[in-house]
Amino acid sequence: MKHIKTLTRKSHKSTIAKGGCGECQTSCQSACKTSCTVGNQSCENN
Amino acid sequence: MGRIHRFQLNNKNIVMDINSGSVHVVDKLVWDIIELYENNSTEEIINKLKASYPEEDVTAALTEVKALVEEGLLFSEDLYIDDINYNNQNIVKALCLHIAHDCNLRCKYCFASQGDFHGDRLFMSLDVGKKALDFLVENSGNRVNLEVDFFGGEPLMNFEVVKDLVKYGRELEKKHNKKFRFTITTNGVLLNKNNMKFINENMENVVLSLDGRKSVNDDMRPTISGEGSYDVIVPKFLEFVKMRGNKSYYIRGTFTSNNLDFSKDVLNFKELGFKSISVEPVVASPEQDYALLEKHLETIINEYEKLSKEYIKFKKNGDGFDFFHFMIDLNQGPCFIKRVVGCGAGVEYLAVTPEGDLYPCHQFVGNDEFKMGDVYNGVNNLDLRAEFKDANIYSKDDCKDCWAKFYCSGGCHANAYNFNNSLKKPYKIECEMERKRIECAISVAANLEGEED
């Protein structure tokens, strides 16, 4: 595309079927310990 | 609610498709088209923009926009799931072990009341610790990866128990086919060669507490005798990080209204040689003189933007570092379910006190209303667990119309409760800061796209 550069095509919808396995890191166990930040966690299932 | 969020930052026009999670960097023409797209026909858009752009360019750009809409990557519908069927078995997979309710620093903002969490100064016994790990294994169902954070107070004050619990955990791993990921959060005062070696060999991640510049740190993090802690701690952290090699760690500071110019503290960490940095807003009630208030928000938001510019510059020069809140993996991030349910406190994540009592997370420890049970008898406050389980982005009114909900997942339960007395009413100042951090993180990703660091 000339006018649009898509950074990610991954859609949340596509993660529903295999999602919710619960193996990923608990967000507050990472660095913050004060504020929940799920968006920068990684999926263990990819 | 709106289906997209547009913002301009760090020389990029960014369009986020809220419901799919897709993110697009667009030129000025598409930026203008997007503004008109939902309420205008193709013809109307062309008519409105043809004075500013050649008509064939508008048509071509519109074709690109429509292709993404058809793919479900722009203006997509909310996936709203009526019944979030998450963790029906009430599996527990992460514990925060309060190894010591005592501390060798007297940080002024400590939510743990200088380590004792408003109770007695206590150390967790090995017996309680073992029971906690047994409880975790027994309640972990088919989860393989289990997380245990050694927390305090200051966990190095009770380090023999930490070592024995790691050993015990390794025995349990073999017996039950589990994998313990141990982590520790420390202020560094008691670090020495022996415990550094043990930590480096056994802990998957380490959180090292320090507030940035010496004056900032020493003002808020004095020793018991009232002296600054910076000069004692920094050499130890530097030695520790050097020994740690490529293993994960974070140097983690807290900013307050006394250092609203906290980007300088982040950059001070960088100058010292730390590569993984997190600096977090203080959690404090408004009457404290160091609390963050609504009147500080504009300054804080500008500071995040300023930091993002520096961050991009360092990364582009091949001299980058990681700032926790600017790291966002757009392609390998968490699944939709995780984004809806959030941190899991009170359900899959619990805190354990030195006595073995269970709380929804470390922030609730010491508040009797939130006691959930103990490691000997398990969770018995089922109503409370249900309340935590039900607090997700679809049950919080303020989240429904927020573009950032799939990134922050509803925010921190403890903040919501402490400031609004409800798990379902997010804390506004936190929301504002989080929205800005997400914008910064995405603008960083847009700027570094295709670059190698």
How would you describe the overall organization of this protein?
The complex is a heterodimer of chains A (46) and B (453). Chain A has one strand spanning 4-8. The model of chain A has no long low-confidence stretch (mean pLDDT 81). By secondary structure, chain A is low in regular secondary structure. In chain B, 40% of the residues lie in helices and 16% in strands. Chain B has helices at residues 28-37, 42-49, 55-70, 126-138, 159-176, 193-202, 214-220, 230-244, 263-272, 297-316, 336-341, 382-390, 397-400, 405-408, 413-420, 428-448, and strands spanning 4-9, 12-17, 23-26, 94-98, 100-101, 122-123, 145-151, 179-186, 205-209, 248-255, 276-281, 322-323, 349-352, 357-359, 373-374, 378-379. In chain B, strands 12-11-10-9-8-7-4-13-14-15-16 form an 11-stranded mixed β-sheet, with helices on one face. Chain B is globular and about 75 Å long. The chains are: A little secondary structure (46), B alpha/beta (453). At the A-B interface, strand 1 of A face strand 3, helix 3, strand 7, strand 8 and strand 10 of B. Strand 1 of chain A pairs antiparallel with strand 3 of chain B, so a sheet runs across the interface.
> Judging from the principal axes of the Cα atoms, what is the shape of chain A?
flat
Beta content of chain A comes to 5-15%
User: How many helices of chain A does DSSP assign?
Assistant: 0
In helices, the fraction of residues of chain A equals under 10%
Q: State the helicity of chain B in percent bands.
A: 25-40%
Strand order of the largest sheet of chain B: 12-11-10-9-8-7-4-13-14-15-16
Radius of gyration of chain A: 14 Å
Low-confidence stretches of chain A: none
Main sheet makeup of chain B: 11 strands, mixed
Please identify the oligomeric state: heterodimer
Helix and strand content put the structural class of chain B at alpha/beta
List segments of chain B where confidence is low: pLDDT < 50 over at least 5 consecutive residues: none
User: The biggest beta sheet of chain A, please?
Assistant: none
Average of pLDDT of chain A: 81
The number of distinct β-strands of chain A equals 1
Gyration radius of chain B, rounded: 24 Å
Q: How does the overall form of chain B come out from the CA principal axes?
A: globular
- The mean pLDDT of chain B is 95
- Compute the separation of the termini of chain A in Å: 27 Å
Question: What series of H and E elements makes up the topology of chain A?
Answer: E
Question: Which range does the strand content of chain B fall in?
Answer: 15-25%
